[in-house]
Each structure stands twice: as C-alpha cells, then as structure tokens.
Amino acid sequence: MLSAIVLSCLVVAVADGDTLTARCSGTPNTLHVRLAEIDAPEKRQAFGAQSRRQLVALCLRRQAELRPLPGAAGHDRYGRVVAHVRCGGVDAQAAQLRAGLAWVMEGYASDLNLPALQWQARRERAGLWADARPVAPWVWRARRRHPAAR
After folding, report:
1. How far is it, in rounded angstroms, from Cα 17 to Cα 42?
2. Is-catalytic flag, 42?
3. DSSP calls for 78-102
4. Cβ atoms of residues 117 and 97 within 8 Å
5. Which of 27, 59, 12 minimizes the C-alpha distance to 40?
6. How does 59-94 read in b/e, with b if 16+ C-beta sit within 10 Å?
7. Which of the residues 34, 67, 86, 98 is marked catalytic?
8. Which of 37, 52, 67, 80 is catalytic?
9. Is position 34 annotated as part of the catalytic site?
10. 19-24 and 38-39 as β-strands: parallel, antiparallel, unpaired?
C-alpha cells in the first residue's frame, strides 16, 4: 500500500543497493532512506558493489519521489525512513529486482508485482541469479554474526 505522504527530494548519496540519502523540500535535514520491500546484497557480499552501482546510476543526483510507509513500518531499527522510491520516474525497487540485484523481502512485500520481477530475473539468470547458489543478504548477515552456524 502506498503512503499518502509524498516527499520531493534530491538524492545526495547512495550507501548500498537499498539505502540512500536524500535532501527533501520542507525538511531541514537529509533523510536516510531504506527502499521498502527489497533487500540488496551487502557491500562486501557478492553482487553488493554491482547493486550499489545500479542504484547510483538510477538515483544519485536525481529528483526522487519518496512515499514513506505509514506508522511504525515507516522507520527501521536504524532510524532510516522506509519508503517506496521513484527516481526520475522509475520505481527503484522494481529496477533493482529486474536487474537481479536485490531480493524481495518476504513477509514485508505488499506489491504483488515484485515477486514476479524477481522470478523473471532468476529465470533469466540476471545479476546475482547468475550465481549457482546466491546467498540472500539476511542469510549472509546471520553467517557473519554467527560463524559457527554455517
């Protein structure tokens, strides 16, 4: 479900394939934004650099439309705004999935088109799906936290 709040912003930095920093009209500070409904590979993970480069090409120094999720879902545990993001009119979440550079966050995705985009990228072996055994970012993070659980 899309938020009724829409922020017009300029993307000033991209941290990784699902996180950016934006300067929005009407707000005094920059916002750290987590793209809703997807999880991209971590920077040091396989395909992490490619995922970041893809988001840089799509969003950096471009106008973006942010639709924060309503209520408590609108912020993550790191204080980032969780939002649907469109850069230059392009849905950033869909673009990352289409390129095979992010996973759908199961249990959090409300856009029913996103799993279909992931499936298509997987079928076409795009991006991380070219790997015979790609590792989801949440699994990669868990392995780093608990190395004995590998």
Report:
1. 8
2. yes
3. TSPEEEEEEETTEEHHHHHHHTT--
4. yes
5. 59
6. bbeeebbbbbbeeeebbeeeebbbbbbbbeeebbbb
7. 34
8. 80
9. yes
10. unpaired
Note the pTM of the prediction, 2 decimals: 0.92
What tokens appear for 64 in the block? 């973006």
Sign, CA dihedral 43-120-107-142, equals: negative
pLDDT tens figures, 117-131: 999 999 999 999 999
Q: For residue 40, give the DSSP letter.
A: P
> Tens of pLDDT along 25-77?
888 889 999 999 999 999 999 999 999 999 999 999 999 999 999 988 889 99
Place of tokens 């000033």: 12
